[in-house]
Design brief:
- There is one protein chain.
- The protein has about 100 residues and is an all-alpha fold.
- The chain is about 70% helix and about 0% strand.
- It has six helices and no strands.
- It starts with a helix and ends in a 5-residue tail after the last helix.
């Protein structure tokens, strides 16, 4: 089993959309072996990539978004250009208070 960090580092090695698609397909197959549907696997992987990118610089986040369509699950797209500490805190609080169906 890979850690999310290992998975993210593998994804960052992709330089083209073709490499990203091939890598994602391999990861989806790996999740399927664990009983996860292809759709759920792709959704989970891309959500995790988008989240992890939030810990990196804007260039890395933009690369992950461009290659994988991986959007930060809380901050959304292009957050690195507009997000402030106060706004991030507000969104985190809102997400933490939301019910699972929201």
């Amino acid at each position: 089993m890979k850690t999310y960090g290992e998975q993210f580092q593998e994804a960052l090695k992709c330089e083209t959309e073709e490499e990203a698609k091939a890598w994602l397909a391999r990861e989806v197959r790996r999740y399927e072996e664990e009983g996860v549907s292809p759709h759920e696997a792709a959704t989970t992987i891309c959500s995790n990539l988008g989240y992890m990118a939030g810990y990196y610089d804007s260039k890395t986040a933009a690369k992950v978004q461009a290659l994988f369509g991986a959007i930060h699950p809380i901050f959304g797209p292009d957050y690195w250009n507009t997000m402030t500490g106060d706004r991030a805190f507000e969104l985190g609080l809102r997400r933490g208070r939301a019910t699972p169906s929201e």
